[in-house]
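From the shared-data thread, chain only:
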Amino acid sequence: MPKRCAIYTRKSHEEGLDQAFNSLDAQREAGLDYIRSQKHEGWTVVDRYYDDGGFSGGNTDRPALKKLLEDIERGRVDVVVVYKVDRLSRSLHDFAQIMQRFDERRVSFVSVTQQFSTTTSMGRLTLNMLLSFAQFEREVTGERIRDKIAATKKKGMWAGGQPPLGYRVENNILQIVPPEAEIVRCIFEGYLKHRSLLKLAEQLDQQGLRTRSWTSSKGIAHGGRRFSTNALHRTLTNRTYLGRITHKGKVWPGLQEPIIDKELWDRVHKAMHKRSRQAASSWRHTHLLKGKLKTREGVTLTTGSTGRKKQRHTGRAVPYYISMTALKQGYKTCAIKSLNARHLDDLVRSIVLTQVQEDPRYARLASLEPSVRDAILRATIQRVTLAEDQLDVHLDLAAGAAAIEDGCATGDAAELQKTPFPVCLYRPAVERDGERLHITLAIQIKKLDGKRLILGPDGQDLFQPAQPEPQPHLVLALGQAYSWKQRLESTGCTLAALAKELGITERRIRELLPLTLVGPGLVKRILTGNHGSTITLDRLLATATHLDWQRQLAFLGMDEPVSTTP
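Structure, as tokens:
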């Protein structure tokens, strides 16, 4: 039976490919010779070319390789022939995946200069050894290149890549391009004038100034666009303009002439630092964890709020976090779904404040004005991961301390000490690595009275809120019960008459009237919000069946009654 053979060739660089007979042709000739030598076995070459010129073997993002794999999937190829194994892949992981696809389609693999059969265990061992050495060589080459780049930068030279706006490269040394250097100075001076990246971008656009235009070695055009705020920020923070060369956090004196003098650089960065500090101090967002919250699977929880537009302006809208998976694919596809943002924010606040309060740098944090405190907490919190049974909070104490030193923690201590803060009632597991803390807390997510809340494994509240807030639906139910009872006793009307007058059912009145039997201690807890988040209307109605007020509190797990005196 004839075997259809495909020859795959690859070369990492495009250098020399324009020649009449290049490396790809040589690899193909070697493959053709080998296929002719196997003519007695029925080998024939397929009439298609699979040539990847200018593509690295470090990954599988190669057009010819993709075309070859597609043809294999369609059953058009029986044998793949290459000149050497590393022509197919230099990565052991990638090669193993490619070989698995070959095996699934019963496609053989032959290397012309490294003969072995992948159908035997010895052939697979040889193949793995070859790939291991190939990957080792690739990693050693990478280390050598990285060391060379570090040594080049240490000498103040440009180590490759597109030079920044204002410079060109000549013998590995940056040389000033006067027209572009003038744009760089315009950017620095413009920031001092506007103190805003957005306004600066608008000004540059009005002046017709654009980013540098250049074409890559693959012929792709780049740049020539209006300056974005990100591009301006990169320019304003690039120490190359100060005559320095940076590498992995280290700064070396560069051989290039500076475009910006130190005095202008310091003025600009002082202004940027002041604006950043003001932005942090004026944190007013209703979502503390915006941009920092993900599920265990890595899905981002975005922010939102419910309520009418007028309510949103008055702050009575309910903020929430919702999984992007639930948002795009439906609630049933994600276990986390959505959560009340105020509840989750307060829980994280209580955890962080409990952990950092012993650090002297955070001594005044718990007593600061809430918006200032939240700004510092956001700087401290690196990320929060939420699962059905666990909450992980990652902190960077150094980042939070830096925010405090930047001036966020200001104010009159005597007055600010009165600021309440939530307190965590559980002791989470804490792992410390220098300035970084990883806090783990066992949880469960439960839906109570329409709200999905985070509770402890035993179903109890995880934290004590800073300012208890009454639950409107419980207060309303109590008020209606007492009001209806007063109407019934004072007018002597029947339940049916009262229900008709109010436009509700008799059943509803009959359900809520037992709330008038709730003891005064429990009523005060409901009216002041000191009842915890686990008390639902159904539990309150069940409690009312106990005529003993102390038993009512015990039924709800409230051992210490709240004083009924003001």
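The two ends are 98 Å apart (CA to CA).
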